[in-house]
Amino acid sequence: RILIIGACGQIGTELTLYLREKFGNHKVIASDIREGEAELMQSGPFEILDAMNYDAIQEVVIRYEITDVYLMAAMLSATAEKFPMKGWNLNMNSLFHVLNLAKDKKIEKIFWPSSIAVFGPTTPKIDTPQRTVMEPSTVYGISKQTGERWCEYYFKRYGVDVRSVRYPGLISYKTLPGGGTTDYAVDIYHKALKHKKYICFLNAETTLPMMFMDDAIKATVNIMEANTEKIKTRNAYNLSGMSFNPEEITASIKKHIPEFKISYEPDFRQAIADSWPQSIDDSEARDDWGWKSEISLDEMTEIMLTNLNDKY
Ligand code: VAH
Q1: What pTM does this model have?
Q2: Which of 70, 140, 167, 184 is catalytic?
Q3: How far is the C-alpha of 269 from the C-alpha of 299, rounded, in Å?
Q4: Which of 72, 82, 125, 170, when mutated, tests ligand 1's pocket best, judged by the most ligand atoms within 8 Å of its CB?
Q5: 140 among known catalytic residues
Q6: pLDDT at 30 > cutoff 90
Q7: Tens digits of residue pLDDT in 250-273
Q8: How far apart are alpha carbons 183 and 15 in whole angstroms?
Q9: pLDDT in tens, 175-229
Q10: What is the pLDDT of residue 177?
Q11: pLDDT of amino acid 176
């Protein structure tokens, strides 16, 4: 059976629904520090679970005979800058708990998300390579870079089968993001439908790597289902979907809502975004386990506006 820790988050919610569809509702145990959306709560087993409590995680793992854990709980970039120690403790202790359960053979396989936030201001910004200079300047990025090193250490020293990808900014209509710097790319669709205008907290030229959630879920399941010998990188694989800036996503929205207007009021998140790459080279993921993104910016805009339309 599968345990999702952080199942009520932006990725966790969609990942839980996808895995339940694929493997059967009662094969996928959702857990989080708080209850989540009705669709998630009603579709299968749910446990209130603190990702920082080792004994509580172990109890759920034993009771449900869990084999695979997807650790989706984390404090994202913007919030972690407001609460550095809380962000570090949540992001790191939760990872150690799950790695140690695998080291002690209580679970068999782990998925742990990394992020393009592991790259910093000195990293090449265009087609950022799999291996390159990484001097992250955010708490979140430091925790993800460190987490990658620990994942590789537990694989090499203890044979722990942990797999990871560096997600770009993720965009979905089923769940709202929480505390990220790329969240503007979700909020803009809601505001375009509700108000036909949006005040953006990043400037017009801020190009960032992004991906529609369906592609991210596909990458997550693909890497977990790949034969272990195909996984040659045990810290985390670069993933690439699309790259755009607020001006370009605005142009895409205006094809559907011509009167949509954007204005710019950059805040503290501009510095975070400026430290990240603009585009990512994901050729190793393509070569090793057949990864390929599908959804383009205009296709995503069509999907987002169509599915959000009846909310407003
Ligand atoms: C964030 N959505 O903004 C996350 C992600 C690359 C961005 O890590 O913090």
Answers
A1: 0.97
A2: 140
A3: 27
A4: 170
A5: yes
A6: yes
A7: 999 999 999 999 999 999 999 999
A8: 18
A9: 888 899 999 999 999 999 999 999 999 999 999 999 999 999 999 999 999 999 9
A10: 83
A11: 87
What is the 3 state secondary structure string of the chain?
CEEEECCCCHHHHHHHHHHHHHHCHHHEEEEECCCCCHHHHHCCCEEECCCCCHHHHHHHHHHCCCCEEEECCCCCHHHHHHCHHHHHHHHHHHHHHHHHHHHCCCCCEEECCEEHHHCCCCCCCCCECCCCCCCCCCHHHHHHHHHHHHHHHHHHHHCCCEECEEECEEECCCCCCCCCCCCHHHHHHHHHHHCCEEEECCCCCCCEEEEEHHHHHHHHHHHHHCCHHHCCCCCCEECCCEEECHHHHHHHHHCCCCCCEEEECCCCHHHHHHCCCCCECCHHHHHHHCCCCCCCHHHHHHHHHHHHHHHC
What is the structure's pLDDT at 218? 97
Indicate whether residue 169 lines ligand 1 (CB < 6 A): yes
- Give the ipTM: 0.96
Q: What is the mean predicted confidence (pLDDT) over 150-179?
A: 96
Q: How many A from CA of 105 to the centre of ligand 1?
A: 31
Dihedral of the alpha carbons of 183, 185, 187, 192, in degrees to the nearest 10? 170
Cβ of 77 below 6 Å from ligand 1? yes
